[in-house]
Batch of 2 targets.
Target 1
Amino acid sequence: MKAMFTVASSPLFASLIAASALLVGATFSHADAMLSAQGKVLFAHNCHACHSEDSARNTFGPSLSGVVGRKAASVPRFAYSDAMKASGLVWSEDNLRMWIADNVKLVPGTRMRHVAISDKAEQDYILAYLKTL
């Protein structure tokens, strides 16, 4: 069964909100908050089953608190794959985007399995949310 999103969760709606914020003189932080709110919804649907937002708690996957800018395979008390440990990655926005789109392509041999998110707008939403953690 395919998940259905409301008009409020569409990429077009988010673009209109961001453009409206600029036209009425609102700060970027308001537009960023809107993107982040949508990212939280996508995170809940795609990531939360395996990842915690709590820095003190790993689940099936490592905590994603503070992930943006963090060295890959560096969360304490998590058993990373040898491939991830050897990757040398830092979780920049570009690397996170590539990971979200196709993690196995970015790090062959990773143990993580997930449904790839190839839609750039949805990636933007998730990245906006990850920046808040």
Note: The chain has one domain: 7-114+121-130.
Target 2
Amino acid sequence: MTDAIEGSSFERLRQYGSGRVFSDLDLRRVKFTSSVLAQHDDPSFGLVVRDSILQNCSFSACTMAGVRLENVTVDGAKLSKSSISGCVFRNVTLRGKIGQFIFAGPVRSLGAEMFAAFSDGMADFYRDVDWALDIRDAVFADATIRAVPGELVRRDENRHFLLRRADRDTVLSLPDAPDLAKAYFRDFDLTPFDSMVAVASQGSKTFEKQLAELQWLRERSLAG
């Protein structure tokens, strides 16, 4: 049975710890403020959100960390001062107008041993994933997708560019490489994966500049 919630607001909602599954959610125009969905001690990602849709929801000062998302659609979202760290994705679709999305690696404050365990757990998870994210119909205000294997992202090749770690040193050594291109390749120091997708954010005022700088890489066979 689907749990439908429309037009509600939640403040300081806290869900900590693994071993929980949230499924069959239909959230429409729901507002979350200063809320947390996170776990920091289970690199097998037993905190799960699946089979759900979020439409035109907003998140202010929210945190999501160590979560596995499967068969989830986000159709329009507003984010402000929110973070997504060390999460994994299977068949997650982002579409419509999306705010600032940063998919980062494991939380940096984890101890070295647990940080390595989460990094390994992310790599293990993606070994049997057919596709992780579909961003073809998303219009981002800003987006950084550094902690998802680039090959597993369904993308619009006119706006989304596949980068590979193997080209990192080449790009960083080029004196005429655009600043944005270099910034993306430096991000390989922050991800366990050997590829990522760079996004020219269509909803940004600097979209044309972003697009030109990423196309510079493609013209030199340094982006796919």
Note: Helices lie at 112-125, 168-173, 179-186, 207-219.
